[in-house]
Amino acid sequence: MRTLIALILCWLVVPQIQAADSPPNRSDAAFDKEFGDAFFDAYWSLFPDYGVGVGYYKYADRLIVPDDKSRSEILAFIDKSRAKLLSIDPQRLSESRRADWAILDNEFASLRWRITELREWQWDPSTYNVADPFAKILTTEFAPLDDRLKIVARRLQAVPAYYTAAQRNIQRPTLEHTQLAIEQNRGALEVFNSELQSQINASTLSSGERRQLLERAHTARNAIEGYVAALEALLPTLQGGNASSFRLGRARYDKKFFYDIQTGDTAQALYERAVKERDTLHARMDMLADQLWPKYFPNMSMPSDRLEKIGRVIGKMSEQHVAREDFFAEIEKQIPQLADWVTKHGLLTLDPDKPLRVRKTPPHQRGVALAGIDAPGPYNPTAATYYNVIPLDEIPADRTESLLREYNRWMLPILNIHEAIPGHYAQLVYANKSPSRIKSIFANGAMIEGWAVYGERAMLESGYGDHTAEIWLIYSKWLLRSVVNTILDYSVHVNNMSEADAKRLLVREAFQSNEEANGKWRRVQLSSVQLTSYFAGYAAIYELREQLKREQPQQFELKRFHEQFLGYGNAPVRIIRDLMLQTNSGS
Ligand code: ZN
Ligand code: ZN
Questions:
Q1: Complete edge-to-edge strand list for the sheet that includes strand 371-374
Q2: Helix/strand/coil for 192
């Protein structure tokens, strides 16, 4: 079975190896001074919503009005910070700071480009929604309830100005983002009704304070309703052909990919790589389905169409899944088993003092994800990390059945590997060991998702699942999802792929349900580039590993590779690769 999985990854960017000899840490002190507490305090004063999201509440009472003035302030901050950054020579910094330097350099350029070139603030009305930070302030116990309600009262004052600016900003929005904005802003009203009322009831605010708060909430609701009405009034002209396209187009897509993905590859090269990988996966799945057919369909002849054959084998295998009432317990049981496997097979050292706690997803966090890691932000390091699992008994029965089939006997462990060990959770524990605020605040999504996808493969390579045809077939379907996400995203945004072709790709070539394909089509219209991050990161990490193996066959050790890679924190793979190649070349 092993030869079957030896994929050929053929895009290789050899970075320039520079001498890393520099007087250690003298420049580090200068860097830390410029980009320490004062820098972040200024940053959070400009982005208080994001601050609330990561647990920095100093500016929680501030709602930034998205007008020309606030955009100019952000641009001025970027220019000032960038000048400071360029006054420090990155080659004189220690490894970790050099990575931080490169992250900031990219972040400043990216932020400036988004405001001045991409201009989502003009064509994406869904960027305007005040609800989330309010909900976080109301539900996160970072201060006594009365204090949090006073923060809410102050923050509410800017809501009317916020939506006035939003309406003024919007020019030729896309139809899809306008519809999303209408839907989400309608949902936002809830935060200022029952959620707020129940918190007020639980508080000891005076009657005067209560009245003021309710009045301001009422004004805020009117502002939201006004925004929704203005967007609804736009719909006929947008539907009549006056909208911008949701498709980014090549130039903007390439640039966004460059800033966001940071694996050292171009969007087009990754797309071509994904197309090749899809074909390789289909060929492998074809062979596996041939092996499995007689076992699952004895005495039945195989369909001549290979994709139909693969789909039918997967469908039959999907019948083997846990019962709804055992789903949670099964996940709870698998986590320590995965930890055990990772340790015994020399994949990673895990910290026994940090066991992961599995829990039912709290109501306010229930979204689309079935399961996911809920980790404390960098400003809240002592809080626990949880593995949230949606309680299946609160989901309609037919939906539950399709989830259970999807996360069948073979797929459920792969999900746990991805989310928990050695995937997101283990990665996070390592990132926290070498704390870098810059790396956690400006975390690179392709590195994080790429690691989780790479971890699945590393587990199966180490023999997890016993190298059966079943585990490799289901794993291939899972990997195909990341691969096809990449093909879809690029095809839709750059190559004008139609809805019908997109759904054919997802359903026929990636064995997804119609429901899943519909959701993905919606997501690709509303987002761009993010869908490629899984495969981009995976391919880059895998390629780095193979490169190190080739160049240093004697010294290469898998566990050391994993630990060194994770030791750099949430930095982009491009930067980690440069640092690892420098270190391992012994310069
Ligand atoms: Zn069933
Ligand atoms: Zn993930």
A1: 357-360, 386-389, 371-374
A2: helix
Q: Number of helices (H) and strands (E), helices first, in the chain?
A: 27, 3
SS3 244: strand
Nearest ligand for residue 446 CA:
2
Q: How far is ligand 2, taken at its centre, from the CA of residue 388, in Å?
A: 13
**What's the CA-to-centroid distance between 381 and ligand 2, angstroms?**
21
**362 φ/ψ angles, rounded to the nearest 5 degrees:** -60, 145
pLDDT score for 22: 40
- From CA 374, how far away is CA 459, in angstroms rounded? 23
99, containing H or E segment: helix 95-113
Q: What is the mean pLDDT of the chain?
A: 92
Q: Which two tokens stand for residue 408?
A: 């069948």
Closest CA to 512 of 472, 485, 539: 485
Contact 442, 107 (CB under 8 A): yes
Bridge partners, 386 (sequence order): 357, 374
Ligand 2 center to 452 CA (angstroms): 6
State the burial class of residue 490 (Cβ atoms within 10 Å of its Cβ: 0-12, 13-18, 19+).
Answer: buried
In angstroms, the Cα distances linking 584 to 13, 260, 357, 460, 561 are 17, 27, 36, 26, 10
Q: CA-CA distance, 69 to 60, in Å (whole number)?
A: 20
> What is the spatial distance between Cα 326 and Cα 344, in angstroms, rounded to a whole number?
27
For residue 533, report the distance from its CA to the centre of ligand 2, in Å: 10
Contact by Cβ (8 Å): 342, 422: yes
**Cα separation, 453 vs 541, whole angstroms:** 10
Alpha carbon distances (Å) from 351 to 167, 338, 342, 429, 439: 50, 13, 12, 8, 21
Percent of the chain with pLDDT over 70: 94
pLDDT digits (tens, 9 = 90+) for 319-371: 999 999 999 999 999 999 999 999 999 999 998 777 789 999 877 667 667 88
The CB density around residue 4, as the number of other CB atoms within 10 Å, is 14
User: Which ligand neighbours the alpha carbon of 324 most closely?
Assistant: 1
Helix%, strand%, coil% for the chain, nearest 5 = 70, 0, 30
For the chain, domain boundaries: 27-118, 125-242, 265-316+342-540
307, 508 Cβ separation under 8 angstroms: yes
**Environment class of residue 100 by beta-carbon count within 10 Å: exposed (0-12), middle (13-18) or buried (19+)?**
buried
In tens, the pLDDT along 525-576 reads 999 999 999 999 999 999 999 999 999 899 999 999 999 999 988 999 999 9
Alpha carbon distances (Å) from 334 to 323, 478, 529, 543: 15, 19, 33, 29
Instruction: State the distance from the centre of ligand 1 to the C-alpha of 332, rounded, in angstroms.
Output: 21
Backbone angles phi, psi at 244, to 5 degrees: -75, 155
Could you report the per-residue pLDDT of 88-132, keeping only the tens digit for each? 999 999 988 999 999 999 999 999 999 999 999 999 999 999 999
Tracing tokens 């924190």 back to the chain, one arrives at 569
At position 392, the amino acid (one-letter code) is L
Which residues on neighbouring strands pair with residue 359, listed in sequence order?
Answer: 388
Shortest-distance ligand to the CA of residue 327: 1
